[in-house]
Amino acid sequence: MTTSEEYLLPKHVAIIMDGNNRFAKKKQLEKGDGHREGKNVLDPIVEHCRKVGIEALTVFAFSSENWNRPQFEVNLLMKLLEETIHEQIPRMEKFEIALRFIGDRSRLSSELQSLMLYAEHKTAKFTDMTLTIAISYGGMWDIAHTAQLLAQQVKDQQLDVNQIDVDLFGRHISLGDLAPVDLLIRTGGDYRLSNFLLWQAAYAELYFTQTLWPEFTVTELDHAFNVFSGRERRFGKTSEQIQQEHIEK
């Protein structure tokens, strides 16, 4: 078995943490307990990513579409997000990880928005890894929001419309200062992206697992890294070109 140190590691890992409610049903738990169990899984995953040298980890905590869930569940998720941020701040300081958030903050409570800003400011100086939590986030919203920002710059004559290209757009979108997503993991058994990091994960390798998020372990994360290391990433080139580049290196 290949050890984590021998992997060709991704720089940026993204995770769709799916399956909390199904875990609760499977274990005959009370409503909401699946989300509580899922919250506890994140810490060892974050620590392991930092340990093996992952530069950025981005996790999908609450999507734009999740606002349509029952109000009880929305309220619980907001409460758990607040608890998570409070718990993560000292952990981020201990492990020197920068904590960031992406998403439409206008729909969040003022208290949660203030807490997010505080956490970002408190951990901004750390460079060992970046942990980003996507809250009230959707990939289509992200692209549209970035288009609005650039359109406003054109309107204000700060930017010429002809300057807008893929590189410029990519620098303005969420996480534009980080490496693109190399590996996107989805737990829970569904085979879709669910509107997550559509731009940033354009060339990501995809890893889908039947494992429900509360049952996802560091061992399976290492397996995902192993699978990633065995993939040939061509970025539009042929296998022959990639092999020649390896030889030349």
UniProtKB/TrEMBL annotation:
Cofactor: Mg(2+)
Signal sequence region: none
Keywords linked to the UniProt accession: Cell shape, Cell wall biogenesis/degradation, Magnesium, Metal-binding, Peptidoglycan synthesis, Transferase
EC number: 2.5.1.31
A molecular function GO annotation: ditrans,polycis-undecaprenyl-diphosphate synthase [(2E,6E)-farnesyl-diphosphate specific] activity
Residues that coordinate or bind Mg(2+): 18, 205
One Pfam entry name: Prenyltransf
Residues where substrate binds: 19-23, 31, 35, 63-65, 67, 69, 186, 192-194
Active site: 18, 66
GO cellular component: cytosol
UniProt cross-references to InterPro entries, sorted A to Z: UPP_synth-like, UPP_synth-like_CS, UPP_synth-like_sf
One GO term (biological process): cell wall organization
Note accompanying the cofactor annotation: Binds 2 magnesium ions per subunit.
Transmembrane segments: none
Reaction catalysed by this enzyme: 8 isopentenyl diphosphate + (2E,6E)-farnesyl diphosphate = di-trans,octa-cis-undecaprenyl diphosphate + 8 diphosphate
Subunit note: Homodimer.
Family designation: Belongs to the UPP synthase family.
HAMAP family on file: ISPT
Role of this protein: Catalyzes the sequential condensation of isopentenyl diphosphate (IPP) with (2E,6E)-farnesyl diphosphate (E,E-FPP) to yield (2Z,6Z,10Z,14Z,18Z,22Z,26Z,30Z,34E,38E)-undecaprenyl diphosphate (di-trans,octa-cis-UPP). UPP is the precursor of glycosyl carrier lipid in the biosynthesis of bacterial cell wall polysaccharide components such as peptidoglycan and lipopolysaccharide.
Protein name according to UniProt: Ditrans,polycis-undecaprenyl-diphosphate synthase ((2E,6E)-farnesyl-diphosphate specific)
Organism: Acinetobacter silvestris
UniProt gene name: uppS
